[in-house]
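User: Working on a comparison across species. This one is ABC transporter ATP-binding protein from Actinoplanes sichuanensis. Can you predict its structure so I can line it up against the others?
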Amino acid sequence: MSSADATRLVDAEPVAAAEAIRIDGVTHSYGDVTAVGPIDLTVPQGEFLVLVGASGCGKSTLLRLIAGFEQPTDGTIHTDGTAPEPGRGAGLVFQQPRLFPWKTVGGNIALALEYAGQTVTPARIDELLARVGLHDVAHRRTWQISGGQQQRVAIARALAVDNPLLLLDEPFAALDALTREKLQDDLRQVSASTGRTSVFVTHSVDEAVFLGSRVVVLTPQPGTIALDLRIDLPRTGVTADDLRALPEFAALRTEVGHAIRDRVTV
Ligand SMILES: Nc1ncnc2c1ncn2[C@@H]1O[C@H](COP(=O)(O)OP(=O)(O)OP(=O)(O)O)[C@@H](O)[C@H]1O
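Assistant: Here's the predicted structure for ABC transporter ATP-binding protein from Actinoplanes sichuanensis:
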């Protein structure tokens, strides 16, 4: 390489992260009701985006559009450069774990691996369960583990396949407060270690600021972007309690809370 080439490389602008999701002018209507839009949003690879807003503001609709379960009424969506298709390119986690009760915990993970054409071994299943803090449960039936553990299995199943996207629709809403905080903490760490692009839907301002590297607040009916906020809090090397105790955490929570409340009429 010539010295001129080397200089050009040093001088070059840092390369922007590739786009994992691109939403251009998207609206979605159910009959006469416009639930979402218009929305323009670009999500770079590796981002943990949280969609937050009042009930009925279109968070789940937007997530379903990104998953390819719904088609935009107007505009376009691309995930990894192509139109999203259900069952391709995204791991999904819902409010209910939706595990197959006639399978063991390990059997549920194995099914996801088989569906994706991946090799299934007991070691691989144990490794995926360990990633979400579960040990020695692969042989159990799904009703022999707690609700929080079932949701961990659902997350392990979504991570099992090497999908570029992880889409989570209020996965912790049905859990008790303590289990919910533990799972938030674990998901934060798992997401930091996998670097998977994630979109997470929640009602909870605290959960949004705790988990997100970016928080988007939606307005109610139709859902449009009220606030698009970068969350510059440390993602590793800090305990959940210490993170929540940071003044910056409180300030961000207040900002997101105001953005939601300013647009809700009760
Ligand atoms: N399948 C559907 N058919 C008709 N209307 C729908 C359908 N799904 C959602 N809606 C309507 O679209 C709007 C947005 O709903 P959506 O579930 O996306 O909001 P949300 O923010 O996820 O709500 P929540 O937080 O209560 O789950 C609401 O007015 C809802 O009633």
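For your comparison, note: The mean pLDDT is 88.

User: Helpful, thanks.
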